[in-house]
Design a protein that fits this description.
Elements: H1 8-30, E1 36-37, E2 45-57, E3 62-65, E4 68-75, E5 82-83, E6 90-98, E7 101-102, E8 106-107, E9 110-111, E10 116-120, E11 128-142, E12 145-158, E13 168-171, E14 178-180, H2 189-194, E15 201-210
Antiparallel strand pairs: 1-5, 2-3, 2-4, 2-15, 4-6, 6-10, 7-8, 9-11, 10-11, 11-12, 12-13, 12-14, 13-15, 14-15
Length: 215
Amino acid sequence: MTVVRQRSGRVATTAAATVVALVALLAATISPTWAWVTTAPAGGPVNFVGTNIKFTDIQANQTFSCTTFSPSGTVSVPAGTNAAYGASVANLTTVTSSGCANPIGGGCPILAPTTWGFVLTGPPTGDVWPARFTNVKLVVACGGCSFTMEGVINGRFDRGVASPTYQRFTPVTGPSGLVVSASPAPSGFVCTVLDIQAGDDIEVGGYWTNTGTPI
């Protein structure tokens, strides 16, 4: 006679684990790819007015401060769009800048030849969301020094209607996501004096407030 041992406990445990795994997989599969719903109408004006904006090469300890530095453009998606974290909702086609200078290099015009994006990158804490400007490229001409900063500017964005900092984007402290570009590499004698080198991290100071269509 053949005795068949029942392993009901082990089978039940295995089956339960399988069900849990399947439920997790199903949840991941059907979870929405969007993370927040936009409220601003497509084409609405966006104007991030800069306050005390400055760019500091951390390794070189050199700061380039601007009297005016304000990116502007339009909302790029219709109101009610289910937007994924990291998806751009604004095209910032123009940057108005003036009075940019360095204590050693003197006047240092900063040009922005690319269209920036604006994105929320993760879930909020209260009404404050992690956010960033994307596709940032800034060309600096500082006396006998020319160099480019590029990357992103990470920070936080206040969407709390009752907040005194409503629609304010504040860059993170420390490396912002911008770096000094290696192509083209910094050039000119003054860059050597300032010790501006490719790969240097850029800290962005000050903040921007969107005075256009609320995002």
